[in-house]
Specification:
Bound molecules: 2-carboxyarabinitol-1,5-diphosphate, magnesium ion
Distance between the termini: 42 Å
Number of helices: 18
Largest sheet: 8 strands, parallel, barrel
Strand content: 15-25%
Amino acid sequence: MRVEGVEIDETFFARPEDVDPDSYVIAKYYVESDLPTVKVGEQIAIEESIGTWTKVTTETEWIRRHLAAKVFKYERGSKGVVYVAFPLELFDVETGGVPNLLSIVAGNLFGLSAIRHCRLLDVHLPRDYVRAFKGPKFGIEGVRSIVGTLEDRRPHLGTIVKPKVGLSPEQTAKVAYEAGVGGVDLVKDDETLTNQRFCPFKERLVRVMEALDRVREETGRVVLYAANVTASYDGMLELADFAMEHGANCLMIDVLTAGFPALQRLAEDPSIKVPIHVHRAMHAALTRSRVHGIHMRVIAKLVRLVGGDQLHTGTAAGKMGVKGEWREVREINDFLRSEWHGLKTVMPVASGGIHPGIVPINVRLLGRDIVINAGGGIHGHPWGTRAGAKAMRQAIEAAIRGVPLEEYARDHPELRVALEKWGQLFAEKAQEG
Ligand code: CAP
Ligand code: MG
């Protein structure tokens, strides 16, 4: 058949009204090519379902009828959006999980010579597919219930221990204690710190948990410690088992470098009875280009499927990302906080260059059901970590009460000093790009 002036194999083409969203995984791509987008969609459908570069004699009628993906919606011209529907039967739902899904909707297609650029913008997963996964064990409600913020629902305050590497277990525990007393709800390892010789995981875990027990005795508050178990598969399980046996109350994983099945393995392990904090190191290799790669909203969906309880999704203002991207971050956060076929929610984490001066804009643009994370913005406070944590809590209080920071700072000296040091640094990122 001819569409848009080119020949399209009708096995790989459908009308939008013939695509039932309950029976198809639907991928939305932005593409650039010398061909019309509809032809690019057909090429993706062929490569990622039953075809290859030539007709093969081994193909059967059953295969064609049941397993062919179909291009069914597209923008005219050779640049634009195209939708491809993949029959649910194409996927190994029982054992394949996310790797199989990604090998199909985000697989070979990125390297096809006929396509100059391709960005996977979104993926619709049918209810039956989503329900094959268990999702988060805790979600926002579970995390809030541990921390004790179910009632007031203020943003949580997290800190990344800094310097990101180099402190000994004892020094790390001291920083955790100071941050806890100052008012953080979460202490996390940096994504690059796991089990290095200068700070072995096991000793660090024991010491930090002791420090946070002291914080609890002194203040009555529970502070989570997201201990980074990102490692080889077996190494990760060894660290996680040790952590669970020694009183850990949260684990952390770098989901893209460790892989989605690693997160799923932790989340589905009945002996791991703590929330999982998910860092997205390396995401920008996939997400940063506007024309090529994979959009963060796809990664966010997959993290929710396989059981992350908290996920870094970006900031409205901060050191990472690009100007004006807050609308997309907000949209992802709203997805993580909304109903999705019965799976628990995920608490978004705003991180990267956050300090008190830009807390209100982040809370206003990204929503209150969030973790506001600050490393430099706490440990860089001129009066030290404890005062840094206090200043961040004061900024959060001011933000939720709607009081301008300068006004709030008049009788909150920690906040005043932080504002004097950093002012509105990075605030311009919240403007339109
Ligand atoms: C933040 C952070 C996080 C980034 C990652 C860092 O520290 O620990 O890794 O937030 O970005 O090392 O940069 P600071 P994202 O508070 O000191 O900047 O959350 O966007 O994935
Ligand atoms: Mg970091």
